[in-house]
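TA notes. Do not distribute before section.
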Amino acid sequence: MMQWLLNGINDAGLILVELFAGFGLFWLGQLAYKKLFRRINLNVELFFKDNPAVAIALVGYYLGIAIAIGGVLGHGAISAPEKILNLIGYGLMAIVLMLIGAQVGDRFILRRCDTAREIVEERNLGAAFVEAGTHIANGLVLNAALAGDSGGWLVGLACWLIGLAVLILVTAVYPRVTTYDVFGEIEHRNNPAAGVALAGLLIGTGNIIRVSFSADFVSWIPSFAQYGFTLLFCLGSLVLIRWLTDLILVPGVKISDEIVHQEVPNVGAGLIEAFAYIAASLLISWAVLY
């Protein structure tokens, strides 16, 4: 009984230390965001200018870090100090890769927009939703890339780079599927519905990537062949389920028309499309993992 009590106290103490370390990483993350990425005064933007676009983008960034750190906590460790060192070391790596992923998102996903100007000066909610979706998707990719002990950091880095490339490819193909100018809607019309829908696609795709890289690494060719096959299968399933959404959830209505061909874009329609992508990715992940 006494040994059980001591073990419980030790576990509770370790959890508290991990929580404090996690909040320390959040603090470093937001410091890096405002000093290195956006170069803005968050207090002024959030609490004096009441800029909702900055808040949306920032919350997406925070959530992306939280998801990425979840992969770090999956590392096995022999002792409590080793667990803490793993959390701090990999957590700092996650913050650096989150910032790099954010820059990639600005340059290659929202490449037609000056994202900083759209969010900070124009208060463009559509651009803010897409940036938040990019951060969350990056966190999901990092969750898989940093998780587990097999393969080491080189395999994790390769998975992360592949994941970013898939996100860029999906967002390049997406406007052709929707048959409307997604990025033009976001930049010129400040269309929040289009931004929400694209953010949902990014998050759903990020979750698919996380699932595809979840299997333990064995060796380069067999493992990445398995990852690639799973990724293609899951992305194909995501497209199929999205197509079924129009038929089942909103029969007789085209979501794209509601998002674009309205005097006031239908944000509800954008949310339904975003839900379809995210819910589909969850269903696929549960089917693949369990």
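Switch to the second chain here.
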Amino acid sequence: MKALIQRVAEASVEVDNTCIAKIGRGLLVLLGVTHTDTPAAAEKLASKIAALRIFEDAQGLMNLSVADIGGEVIVVSQFTLYADTRKGNRPSFIAAARPEHAEPLYEALVRQLRETLGPHRVQTGRFGAEMQVRLLNDGPVTIELTVAE
């Protein structure tokens, strides 16, 4: 399981020209799932995301988590994080899990984040939909996390 995490001043997700998620200060999490991922990996990654200390404290040091600052999170499914471009110029997505495997793990990660941070602080895109994701990256700070079980 792989997450590309961006610290944001604000972010939103639109589907069919309708805003379905919008947050202020917090994290935009692009989530990729591979074939071997498990519910334990989803739980471990969710815990890591909630506790990741990438927000500045009063001294300007990255010592605070999204939980510490009362920030919000948007989680967006992103199978293209498992793109393989070693051969040619057209990416292969064979390492990305099929939707029937990926969606329950995506939902498990979101559920864990909601339990940790509070249900109203975690929003989502729409799994499998064409989405327009807007963000104002803060820093910029972008971190890739990979968890395997």
